[in-house]
Amino acid sequence: MQTEKTDYLIIGAGIIGLTLAKQIKERFSGKKIIMLEKEPDVACHSSGRNSGVLHSGFYYTADSLKARFTRDGNRFMKEYCKANGLALNECGKVVVASDEGELKGLYELQKRGKANGVDVRLIDEKELAEIEPNAKTFKHALYSPATATVDPVEVNEHIKKSLLNSGVIIRFSEGYKTRSGENIVRTSTGARIEAGKIINAAGLYADRIARDFGYSKDYVIIPFKGIYLKHEGGAKPARTNIYPVPDLRNPFLGVHFTVTVEGVVKIGPTAIPAFWRENYKGLENFRPGEALSVMYYETKLFIANSFGFRNLAFEEMRKYYKPYFIGLGKRLVRELNPAGFRHWSKPGIRAQLLNTKTLELLQDFVVEGDRRSVHILNAVSPAFTSSFPFTRWVLDNYLN
């Protein structure tokens, strides 16, 4: 069988693969780029199933990659949307406290935001009422005017079209199957592709592909399912994003109100441990071997109660009960009509990297590689917000 050659082979056409291809093309216009995408189009998984929130970067410690990339990514993504006429809702965000104990967490978020160069400030209850009349807090809240929302599918589609127009080859319904030589891969259609550089941006399956190249030895991806409840009737309960003070020991931000780019209000998301990687609905995409592997690690986390996993699992399962789920959102606002929330949104899966030695959920970006291949192993939230500066960093540090 004939082997096709390319300068760059990118596995995965999610937001990370797309923005990486865009920046490679802009820097090395004469290079050939082939992208493999196992789905029939872009944005079929987390890149198109996320909330669309452009975070501003105050959640993360100043020494993390996320702190820098989220702050800069917020600005770059807004500029991209404005320059290309894409939908953008600059609605801001408030983080509210429920009691005296949560004020300490609120002050820590403000401290991190200032250290990261992010526009955040503490406000009192009177100022909060002016920004978001329905939000309630204890003494103080944190206000982030830079937070915004976009349509993630629209953004992915626009980048895809610009790549195709620039000569990038995207092979849809054709995924990675196996490594077939030092820098040769065999695809799901049986084709063989040899690349000067292979970039693994495969999201939920990035760890598996990396192991074929000798990487991700101490890591495995654990899937978590996120679902929102949509508000569909009556007066909208929020005009800006309303978040609780999170537990900074784990990477989840808690049940909150999101205002989409169309102005739709949602409560969510869940962070339910999934049983296989594409466990969106029923037995769809069920793979027995994959399920056994995921449940093996989830059982280890449950027994060890690492980062409070046992409590997290029980708490998340309760969220399937709508009255309880809505009740969590009700804690953040003065008034809420449960009857307005009837339908669940399309679920998304968070590809969360686990260190198998320490049983720690990795909260920052993780990349491994050499001169032949690069593997983006942990590109979790806010990877969408961070995508432009993060992939520029990958290009500067691993591809030049």
Detailed description of the structure:
The chain is of the alpha+beta class and 400 residues long. α1 runs parallel beside α6, α1 crosses α11 and α3 crosses α11. The radius of gyration is 21 Å and the shape is globular. The relative contact order is 0.19. The strands form five sheets. Strands 1, 2, 9, 10, 11, 12, 22 and 23 form an eight-stranded mixed sheet that branches. Strands 6-7-5-15 form a four-stranded mixed sheet. Strands 18-13-20-21 form a four-stranded antiparallel sheet. β10 and β11 form a beta hairpin. The protein has a domain of 228 residues: FAD/NAD(P)-binding domain, CATH 3.50.50. The protein is built from eleven helices and 23 strands. The longest helix has 19 residues.
Structural class: alpha+beta
CATH-derived architecture of one domain = 3-Layer(bba) Sandwich
Largest sheet: number of strands, sense, barrel closure: 8 strands, mixed
What name goes with the CATH superfamily of one domain?
Answer: FAD/NAD(P)-binding domain
CATH topology descriptor of one domain: FAD/NAD(P)-binding domain
Give the C-alpha Rg: 21 Å
Total DSSP E strands:
23
Q: Could you list some keywords that capture this structure?
A:
FAD/NAD(P)-binding domain, 26% strand, four-stranded mixed β-sheet, single chain, 400 residues, 11 helices, 23 strands, alpha+beta, globular, eight-stranded mixed β-sheet
What is this entry, summarized?
With 400 residues, this protein is α+β, with helices and mostly antiparallel strands.
